[in-house]
Sequence to fold (378 residues):
Amino acid sequence: MPSRRRWPLLALAIAVLGITPLAYRAQRSAGLPTRPIVALAGHYAPPAPALTWHEYGWRLPAARMLAGTYNRQKILTCSTKDLLTTVGKRLITWPLAPVPRLTVPPGYLALDLHTHGLYSHDSLESPEQMLLAAAQRGLSGIAITDHDVFGGVAQVQQAATQLKAQGRLPADFLIIPGEEVGSNEGHIVALFTTQAIPKKLSATETIARIHAQGGIAVAAHPLIASGVGELAKQLPFDAVELENSAQELSFLLAGAARQQQRRDFYAGVTKPLLGGSDGHDPLVLGLCYTLVQCPPNAAAVRVALLAGRGVPVCRLTAADLRAAPGQFLLAGWATLTSPLVGLLHRPAATSPTPGLRRNPPPPVSVATPLSLSSGHTR
Fold:
């Protein structure tokens, strides 16, 4: 019999074992790579806390679900809060994940300009998972914008080079370097920068340092708590995020008055508007993005964004949120009736190119940048 002190740990282990198959199945259905934990080697080396054997015991199922190429060590050594937050995000966002693969209009690029990988403190997303999920969604490229660090850019670029050499990633898939900087007044996304910018500076100083590197300063999700609010209109930002998954979800769940506040705010924005998923999990990538009419190279993208030739797109709707709870409950019931399916499954050594669904729908065509059948612009 476990001692009274061990009961909470035992209950937590049972809970993790119960939800792991559901989240693992979600990862497989989204076409993300899943591998057993065969090694702890990785390029990211966080400080290792002193974990007891039973703490490692309940982390292993989560690691089985989340592991990619480089993130195994962080999964086993990160804080319990970060690990459980990541598992929770995987479960919550799964019903929103099976959106149709987008088809980019000729001459345009579809770019997710706000993403997070394992260098962000609140993400365990490996570079391989990010890149494959983005490509399978039909994106032309992503910006790497980890919280207050720049080291993830080189790792994602290295992973992209390897995947392109293996034929698993389009040769012209773009990686835009950047960072999400936590200024004293709110979060600011830096695009096309070359090194880290310190956090906790004033917003004005942060923008100046981004410009000193030839970068683009973007007011990230200005209308949620971590945004810069009205400063997005007052300071010399190069662009403002209109479409951001976190901000969009908060407004889709809000009432009419809050929706009107959003419309009034953006009616007063004169700067170029952009879109990015703010994805901390592969299932979120591409839910918001930016269409850009330019050649497929970073220099051309930078010029086009500064010239205001980007069209922000959101693929989340109120209908998606209404459908999500039902999908989640059905998936949970299916998992409970077969609780070991995810843990016992071993992916085949060779498998067809993964899609967003087991049987994905036909591609959704985008007729013009302002008439999007796979999303909506404002």
